[in-house]
Specification:
Length: 153
């Protein structure tokens, strides 16, 4: 078995890892061809990873021009602790206000907890009024979990 096969996560392991991960590194392509890389909070949108961001942000400008995207969640401080999932594919941009706001509520609940009153809901609504939902339609997924090596290199 190759080292690559040894460290690959199963689908269940990837799902568990992504549920615990807090930050998604998002790469889009600038007009000059250089990468634009930013950290984003994220959540699931159906079977896909997604995030929301301001409609005038550089990443949205880039993705409207070229929908290719790569996202990565990673963790670990020592080599034997390194874990991650990288997904490359196409960004689906959703401007529908109701869908964006539903996603905004999901993001709020993932990072801050339940929406307990209308003031919180209105705050999410205010944040979402200028945002776009970005759904990652993955074409290639790569994962790694160096703890599977048992300390060997």
């Amino acid at each position: 078995m190759s080292r690559r096969d040894q460290i690959r996560m199963t689908d269940d392991e990837m799902e568990s890892f992504l549920l615990e991960a807090r930050t998604l590194q998002v790469a889009s392509i600038n007009a000059d061809g250089t990468p634009h890389l930013v950290p984003m909070w994220f959540a699931h949108h159906g079977d896909h990873l997604a995030f929301w961001t301001y409609g005038k942000s550089q990443k949205i400008v880039n993705l409207r021009r070229d929908p290719r995207i790569t996202v990565m969640a990673e963790a670990g401080k020592q080599y034997e602790e390194l874990k991650g999932v990288s997904i490359s594919g196409r960004a689906l941009l959703i401007d529908d206000v109701d869908e964006v706001l539903r996603f905004g509520e999901a993001i709020y609940q993932r990072y801050w907890g339940p929406i307990t009153d209308d003031a919180i809901r209105m705050g999410v609504r205010a944040m979402g009024s200028k945002r776009v939902l970005v759904v990652v339609d993955g074409e290639k997924t790569v994962s790694w979990d160096h703890s599977k090596l048992g300390g060997g290199y």
